[in-house]
Amino acid sequence: MLDLLIQNGLIFDGLGSKPVQGDIGIKNGKIFAISPALPNPAREVVDASGLWVTPGFIDIHTHYDLELEIAPGLSESVRHGVTSVVIGNCSLSIAIGEPQMLADIFQRVETLSHRLIAKWLNKSFAWQTPGEYLQHLQQLPLGPNVAPLFGHSALRAYVMGLERSLTVQPSKFELNLMQRITADALDAGFVGVSIDMFPWHRMSGEWQGYTIPSQHGKFREYAMLAHLCRKRDRVFQVTPNLQKLASFWDILRMGSGFGKPLRLTILSALDVVHDRKLWRIFAPILWIWNRLLNGNVRFQTLTEPFTIYSDGPVTPLFEEFATGAQLNGCKSRQERQQLWRSESFRHQFRQEWLNKKRRSFHSQLDLMEVVDCPDPSWQGLSFAEIARRQQQEPVDLFIQALQEYDTDLRWVATGANDRLKPRLAMMQNPYIFPGFTDAGAHVRNLGYYDGALSLLKQAVATKFLTPEAAISRITGEPAAWFRLNTGVLKVGAKADIVLLDANGLNQPISPQVEILDSLLDGEPRMVKRGSDEIVQAVYINGVRVFGEGKISDRLGRERLGSVLSPC
Predict the structure, then answer these.
(1) Spatial separation of the C-alpha atoms in residues 371 and 382, rounded to whole Å
(2) Which residues contact 48 (CB under 8 A, 6 or more apart)?
């Protein structure tokens, strides 16, 4: 007898094939049969008439490493149809090292509160090897499947000690030790290695304000890690330094050459506000790299406008310049006020804000809107509009507002992917993955947990992709490239399935909203809602974990997902 029979659905296999009407039979957590019609002796029968039946979606760029330890069901992603996540991106993982050190590397990047970090530290333990970390993951009551990358920052800090990892280059012995540990990690089942060159990512704790360990590596160290991935056909994930063009040359050298190509994925392909022509270079560069230079390279792009919410001077958008980073590093309003009282600090902030050279964020005050403020007349207006009303220079008004209102001032800005045509072109490019949700990171600033649904909405609205092609882009295609045994509906596959009401896809991209998340002990979090009428049910390992707008009690309490190793 079948455990579950899904009848009369329009089945998309995740491989881009035309959908077929039929039934799916599930037994022992796997797909037992797919047929136009199956006999119905089953413990549970679901009528999927009028619904799309798709593989569970794959989120290829998350930072859920710490949240898995606190709330392993990952319900914010699951409710939007995600059944597999790649963790350990941007060199950030907890696969090796002492817990407090790892917390110091993670906390400021992920903007998790000190209280949540303390909660994790109280229950954490230091596994001795990356292999033991994988065993630990297997014991967690995982909701989605988890595919872990091995983070270079954790590795570098473990081998060299945190202080040396931030201040000097490794000795030959340390480099060899990194090589041995990484090789063991890949052989144990990690899907690849991640490194980071992006200067927005900074430390908390004793070395607060320093950029994280991976950013202090040099080409020899990165190339060694890339070679290990190339040799084993594993993924090498890179976050480049947009302020140093030489970093792109280093990445090109690592990702090109004869023989087995490096499976290289790079953040990110975006249509940035401060350079409206930049997005056009991605397609020709990737074509040359993959077709002429023997590469196997995939950029990643966000499937919607890149909109970030900020609390006064506390925002990841400030991490790329010195005075902004100082403000982010303050532990209290009093510390920030002390900085603002310095005329030299205010002058330096002004100069850095107005300096457009190699900036990642546009810093255009006419494009930065007040969401909440003690002065209600400001709400819904840009800082430039407010400045005009008060007959002030916009940057002076901005500094005054940051100083006076601090985190009582909440504002929002969109820095990229706000134009439909470039966004669709990037999502359609075969060498650019629609991904990069950053799920689990910057929980107070952004929430793109429904990135796969945003792609499907735009495909339905504009027909820039057929439904089967769009579904493949977020299921079977990334699964094949990352070499993960998931993302397709076929006999013998794990029963990770989503039921969608396609009529609900005829609506705009959902806005971000703020909630107080009980899973994070009531901490504020930006999330997505409005997709409950689209996602009718989500199954992981044949178990319904979401349906009728509700998360199942079983999610996060029993082990449903598994740790995915390259197949």
Answers:
(1) 9
(2) 6, 7, 8, 9, 499
Please give the structure tokens belonging to residue 283. Answer: 């397609």
Three-state DSSP at 405 gives helix
CA angle 193, 197, 203 (to 5 degrees): 95
Q: How far apart are CA 547 and CA 256, in angstroms?
A: 46
Residues 229 and 455: their CA atoms lie apart, in Å, by 30
CA distance 486 to 161: 37
Find, among 498, 561, 485, 484, the residue nearest to 534 by Cα. 498
H or E element: which one contains 23? strand 20-27
Q: How far apart are CA 416 and CA 276, in angstroms?
A: 9
Contacts of 76 (CB under 8 A, 6+ apart): 439, 447, 449, 517, 525, 527
Q: At what angle do helices 114-123 and 99-110 cross, to 10 degrees?
A: 150
Judging by DSSP bridges, how do beta strands 512-517 and 410-416 pair with one another? unpaired
Question: Three-class SS of residue 199?
Answer: coil
Calpha distance 227→13 (Å, rounded): 34
In terms of Cβ atoms closer than 10 Å to its own Cβ (0-12, 13-18, 19+), residue 380 is exposed
Distance CA 68, CA 148 (A): 12
Amino acid identity at 184? D
Can you tell me the distance from the alpha carbon of 416 to that of 269, in angstroms, rounded to the nearest whole number?
10
* C-alpha span between 526 and 371 (Å, rounded): 14
Q: Residue 327 in contact with residue 314, Cβ under 8 Å?
A: yes
C-alpha span between 489 and 297 (Å, rounded): 26
Collect all residues with Cβ–Cβ distance below 8 Å to 361 and sequence separation of at least 6. Answer: 274, 317, 320, 413, 415
Nearest to 386 by CA among 404, 398, 399, 371: 398
CA distances from 168 to 73, 120, 164, 221 (A): 39, 30, 5, 12
Structure tokens at 10: 């329009």
Determine the Cα–Cα distance for residues 379 and 391; give it in Å rounded to an integer. Answer: 18
109 in Cβ contact with 319 (< 8 Å) = no
List per-residue pLDDT tens for the chain, 567 residues long: 999 999 999 999 999 999 999 999 999 999 999 999 998 899 999 999 999 999 999 999 999 999 999 899 999 999 999 999 999 999 999 999 998 899 899 888 777 777 778 777 777 777 899 999 999 999 999 999 999 999 999 999 999 999 999 999 999 999 999 999 999 999 999 999 999 998 788 999 899 989 999 999 999 999 999 999 999 999 999 998 877 777 888 898 888 877 889 999 999 899 999 999 999 999 999 999 999 998 999 999 999 999 999 999 999 999 989 999 999 999 899 999 999 999 999 999 999 999 987 678 999 999 999 999 999 999 999 999 999 999 999 999 999 999 999 999 999 999 999 999 999 999 999 999 998 899 999 999 999 999 999 999 999 999 999 999 999 999 999 999 999 999 999 999 999 999 999 999 999 999 999 999 988 888 899 999 988 899 999 999 999 999 999 999 999 999 999 999 999
